[in-house]
């Protein structure tokens, strides 16, 4: 009898519904190569071909159609089971800082891969605000930049680098830089910026100040606020560009332009308190670690990149340890 891995069943169902490896991989939050390899492993284990694929299309075989139909039922039954069990499980409390950051994608990965584990997702505005709750057990996991002047982590808190986030310039409609495919860092010297930060996001504020100091950038406005939506509204209201993640969601009238030479990177670390008795934190940390590897979150750009000096030594040590 062949044991079925529900994760592989979920992969096959997603591929059958999307009929495209790239779209299915994006939906599953895994790399396309990983999905292809896992489907091949499933077919080998079952001894049947589930999909006919070439460079142009994906087609479900007769055996694949049977597998997908039964697989959907199997996944639904499994979902019902873990939901029933989940009613008795303690939630995993995770602070994602705000909307529009890679931290939200990480929370989604945890939902996908920790089936049956309830998540309580919070937005605490910054690591400075999250640390006391983390240390005192009111939070289980948080994110932020851990190597900057003034940062003192409680000894009980563990941390691990999980993402080097490329940043670009968010530009409002009508700005002289609108329409550019990319910008060199030195070009930003001629265009005053908007700095929009929460008063708790001291790690983010310091990163922006160090970037400005090193490359001669200026801030025309410094505002306190919380969230990507509020930052976008300020960019539109003041007509000023701002530094933000390349993946930041933006409304109509605003675009994100990559910045190169160098690419500014923000180092997100996962922070967690000592494990709970149920082992949920240990499992969650491993899920995030695996996702960072599969999705290349710690692979720096091939071109030149920048980190504050206090971060760079730490990051380079981490990267050397991965090879």
Automatic annotation (TrEMBL):
Domain HTH lysR-type: 4-61
Family: Belongs to the LysR transcriptional regulatory family.
A Pfam entry, by short name: LysR_substrate
Top-level taxonomic group: Bacteria
Keyword Transcription regulation: yes
Any one GO MF annotation of this record: DNA binding
GO cellular component entries: protein-DNA complex
Entry keyword set: DNA-binding, Transcription, Transcription regulation
Protein name, as recorded: LysR family transcriptional regulator
Record lineage: Bacteria, Bacillati, Actinomycetota, Actinomycetes, Pseudonocardiales
């Amino acid at each position: 009898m062949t044991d079925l891995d529900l994760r592989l069943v979920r992969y096959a169902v997603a591929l059958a519904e999307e009929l495209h490896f790239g779209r299915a991989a994006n939906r599953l939050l895994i790399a396309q190569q990983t999905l292809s390899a896992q489907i091949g492993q499933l077919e080998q284990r079952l001894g049947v071909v589930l999909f006919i694929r070439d460079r142009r299309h994906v087609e479900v075989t007769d055996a694949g159609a049977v597998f997908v139909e039964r697989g959907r039922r199997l996944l639904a039954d499994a979902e019902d089971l873990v939901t029933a069990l989940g009613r008795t499980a303690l939630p995993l409390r995770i602070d994602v800082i705000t909307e529009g950051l890679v931290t939200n994608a990480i929370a989604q990965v945890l939902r996908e891969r920790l089936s049956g584990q309830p998540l309580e997702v919070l937005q605490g505005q910054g690591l400075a605000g999250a640390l006391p709750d983390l240390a005192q057990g009111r939070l289980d996991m948080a994110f932020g930049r851990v190597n900057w002047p003034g940062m003192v982590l409680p000894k009980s808190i563990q941390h691990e680098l999980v993402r080097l986030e490329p940043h670009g310039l968010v530009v409002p409609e009508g700005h002289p830089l609108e329409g550019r495919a990319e910008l060199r860092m030195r070009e930003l010297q001629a265009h005053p910026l908007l700095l929009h930060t929460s008063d708790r996001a001291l790690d983010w504020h310091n990163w922006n100040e160090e970037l400005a100091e090193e490359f001669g950038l200026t801030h025309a406005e410094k505002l306190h606020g919380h969230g990507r939506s509020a930052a976008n509204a300020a960019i539109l209201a003041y007509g000023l560009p701002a530094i933000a993640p390349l993946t930041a969601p933006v409304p109509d009238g605003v675009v994100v332009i990559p910045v190169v030479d160098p690419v500014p990177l923000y180092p997100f670390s996962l922070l967690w308190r000592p494990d709970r008795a149920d082992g949920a934190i240990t499992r969650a940390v491993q899920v995030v670690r695996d996702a960072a590897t599969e999705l290349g979150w710690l692979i720096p750009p091939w071109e030149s990149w920048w980190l504050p000096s206090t971060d760079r030594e730490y990051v380079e040590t981490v990267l050397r340890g991965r090879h």
